[in-house]
């Protein structure tokens, strides 16, 4: 059986390999089921899906962030905010919370139209097609045994990160700053209907 991966949009990818000019193998994912399919992931590699849904094969990171910490972060965000859709990414020593680039309530409200006495519901919006941007970083500092919470400033055109707080306990860091995390503002929504 060949290596396949379905991303969060439901798109199926197949792992391929080709030989470079130097004689090395290059691995890549493609939606097409072509030749040179790979039957197993090479040692020290892992499948990585970025926040845009693109799929890659990458060297395993030496992250010291545990899976339990990722799951705790996801659980705390899910239980203590009203974010319906979010994406959590772990790279090296940083956990990043990604949120949709626009407010889903604004979109769903625009997709209901009343014509005469009939209401036409165009609310076929698929959250799987959302684009996401980073919103919260939790930076793990193993040397200092602490975590720093950063939040991006959406009102700033430069999208700068601001340090909110630090702690040696992930749960207390999130819960102590949950009001700041929940105060997501969206940029002005601009949609072109064709």
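Sequence proposed for the structure above (194 residues):
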């Amino acid at each position: 059986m060949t290596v396949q991966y379905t991303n969060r949009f439901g798109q199926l990818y197949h792992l391929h390999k080709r030989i470079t000019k130097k004689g090395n193998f290059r691995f890549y994912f493609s939606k097409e089921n072509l030749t040179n399919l790979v039957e197993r992931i090479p040692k020290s590699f892992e499948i990585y899906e970025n926040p845009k849904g693109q799929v890659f094969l990458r060297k395993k990171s030496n992250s010291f962030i545990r899976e339990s910490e990722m799951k705790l972060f996801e659980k705390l965000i899910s239980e203590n905010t009203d974010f319906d859709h979010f994406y959590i990414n772990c790279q090296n020593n940083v956990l990043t919370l990604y949120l949709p680039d626009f407010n889903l309530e604004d979109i769903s409200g625009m997709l209901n139209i009343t014509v005469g006495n009939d209401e036409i519901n165009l609310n076929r919006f698929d959250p799987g097609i959302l684009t996401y941007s980073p919103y919260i970083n939790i930076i793990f500092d193993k040397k200092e045994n602490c975590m720093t919470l950063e939040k991006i400033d959406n009102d700033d055109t430069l999208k700068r990160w601001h340090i909110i707080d630090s702690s040696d306990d992930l749960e207390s860091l999130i819960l102590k700053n949950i009001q700041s995390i929940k105060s997501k503002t969206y940029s002005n929504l601009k949609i072109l209907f064709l």
